[in-house]
Specification:
Elements lengths: L23 H9 L1 H9 L4 E5 L6 H10 L7 E6 L2 H7 L8 E5 L11 E5 L10 H9 L7 E7 L5 E8 L2 E9 L16 H4 L7 H15 L8 H14 L8 H4 L3 E5 L7
Parallel strand pairs: 1-2, 1-4, 2-3, 4-5
Antiparallel strand pairs: 5-6, 6-7, 7-8
Helix pairs in contact: 1-3, 7-8
Length: 266
């Protein structure tokens, strides 16, 4: 459907569960990734949409606060399909810097430079994902980005895909390493486009299998803590030919980012 013709919110309601700091890992990545800060600062109108924020606006408020550290002029718009959730969020608004509105994949007519959509697509079928992505991407401002992902209820295990108008670019895993037995424990939080592909013969399964093997090899680093072991496992992953895009400071935070093309479904 052409941009601007939608007159009503598009999408299916989410469960709405949220907790303070649930999305701290993705927020830390957004504020710590130079390319994201550059996109915000280069925009004439640095508008960010938090799509499907849930029953409480707390994570949208946190996002707005954190993004101001890299772009003081940022505006954040929280969108929800449920009008009762929008009404409940109204006391937290601080126009024009933080607002809440009813909306879905059509973005309520907004043209943001960045969209964060977390735990939104989990209830969708895999074949519906690309259409949802495209609906959002077609409405971004020039050079805009979509970050779509999933996390557990308290934000210890997360995975997200960063997309531009030409499609998916990267996959990032982020976790509290102390909470894991091995990296493949994050598999249950893979985004919808990948979660059903964690089976033999698929690239994401191979990625996690090799990552687990590297984790086992890095067992000696456990003496220095789980984060040190995670960082060493990522280094070994890169040594084994996986195109790791980030560097040791991010690994120490329990993160790893690879090109989406390296794990994309066959």
């Amino acid at each position: 459907m052409a941009r601007g013709r939608l007159t009503h919110p598009v999408g299916a309601p989410t469960r709405g569960t949220t907790n303070p700091n649930r999305l701290r890992r993705i927020d830390r990545w957004l504020t710590g990734t130079p390319a994201i800060g550059a996109v915000l600062r280069a925009a004439d109108d640095p508008l960010v949409v938090d799509l499907g924020y849930g029953a409480s606006p707390v994570t949208t408020v946190e996002l707005a606060h954190r993004l101001r550290s890299v772009c003081p002029g940022v505006r954040v718009l929280g969108l929800e399909l449920d009008p009762e959730r929008v009404a409940a969020a109204a006391p937290a608004a601080d126009p024009p810097w933080l607002e809440f509105r009813r909306g879905g994949f059509e973005l309520a007519g907004a043209r943001p430079v960045l969209v964060r959509a977390f735990n939104v697509l989990r209830q969708y079928a895999e074949h519906e994902v690309e259409a949802a992505w495209r609906s959002v991407l077609d409405r971004l401002a020039p050079g805009g980005l979509l970050v779509e992902g999933t996390c557990d209820e308290i934000g210890r295990r997360c995975a997200w895909i960063t997309l531009a108008v030409d499609g998916p670019r990267t996959l990032t895993l982020s976790c509290r390493a102390e909470s894991l037995d091995r990296p493949s424990g994050i598999a249950e939080r893979l985004p919808k486009s990948l979660i059903h592909r964690n089976v033999p013969g698929e690239p994401v399964h191979e990625f996690l299998t090799v990552f687990d093997a590297c984790w086992d090899t890095a067992a000696g680093h456990q003496a220095f803590g789980a984060r040190a072991r995670w960082a060493e496992a990522v280094r070994l992953l890169a040594d084994r030919g996986w195109p790791v895009l980030d560097r040791h400071p991010r690994w120490r935070l329990g993160e790893v980012t690879v090109p989406y093309s390296s794990v994309a479904p066959r």
